[in-house]
Amino acid sequence: MVQHKNTITKMILNLILQAAFIVLVVSIVMLDSELFRQGRSEYSFTELAQEIFILTSAVLFGLSAKYDIQARGFFVLVMGLFFAMLIRELDAFFDNIKHGFWIYPALIVSLSSVYFAKKCEGTVKKPMLDHMDSKNFVYINLGLLIIIVFSRMFGTSHLWREVMGSDYSIVYKSVIQEGIELLGYIFVLYGSMLVWIEAIKKRPGGRA
Predict the structure, then answer these.
(1) Per residue, what are the HEC states of the chain?
(2) Is the pLDDT of residue 206 over 60?
(3) Over 80: is that where the pLDDT of 81 sits?
(4) How does pLDDT run across 39-64, given as a tens digit for each residue?
(5) Contacts of 76 (CB under 8 A, 6+ apart)
(6) Is the pTM of this model over 0.85?
(7) Contact (CB, 8 A) for 14 and 22
(8) CA 66 to chain centre
(9) Which residue has the higher pLDDT, 81 or 6?
(10) Cβ(206)–Cβ(67) under 8 Å?
(11) What are the angstrom distances between the C-alpha of 117 and each of 9, 79, 107, 136, 203?
């Protein structure tokens, strides 16, 4: 009975935390409403939040790689992916050097993570298969699908021109697309937090 109560309590707390994250997404987009009315800004609160969320996710996977040596190679690969995504989000900054320059640091990060993962023999394939079906990675996978697929398709100009007709404005399209992306990033962050918590239990001296 006590175990059931603990499980229910944990489930309720998780739902409250997830709801709070969703409210945070909407609140950030609302803060940006004035900026979006003036045109899309790469330095909006929404863009900044996206960068903070993916940076935090990358750091959490870096820490997870430190704590869980059995999955270190896989975690390093995920960390490299998230850092590459962060660099892509910062493309406007790198464009000050040269248009499309972001691809070079992204390649360096990606290749470095692959190189390091190859040195961690036996910690990539099996951990990847184990984790990809886990509850923690469900959130991450969902978040990535929202960012990479859904936000791109749902936020296309063609779709919203068809829906809005003569009332179409890129401002509304940008609010919708960036808000959806932010929702995806917060799912990634939530899943990364769960992975990190599990990894802490596996560190030397941690609770098994």
Answers:
(1) CHHHHHHHHHHHHHHHHHHHHHHHHHHHHHHCHHHHHCCCCCCCHHHHHHHHHHHHHHHHHHHHHHHCHHHHHHHHHHHHHHHHHHHHHCHHHHCCCCCCCCHHHHHHHHHHHHHHHHHCCCCCHHHHHHHHCCHHHHHHHHHHHHHHHHHHHHCCHHHHHHHHHHHCCHHHHHHHHHHHHHHHHHHHHHHHHHHHHHHHHHCCCCCC
(2) no
(3) yes
(4) 555 568 888 999 999 999 999 999 99
(5) 61, 62, 65, 113, 116, 117, 120
(6) yes
(7) no
(8) 20
(9) 81
(10) yes
(11) 38, 11, 15, 21, 19
Q: What is the largest CA-CA distance in the chain?
A: 64
Round the average pLDDT of the chain to a whole number and report it.
87
> In this predicted model, which residue has the larger pLDDT, 43 or 21?
21
Structure tokens at 94: 């790198």
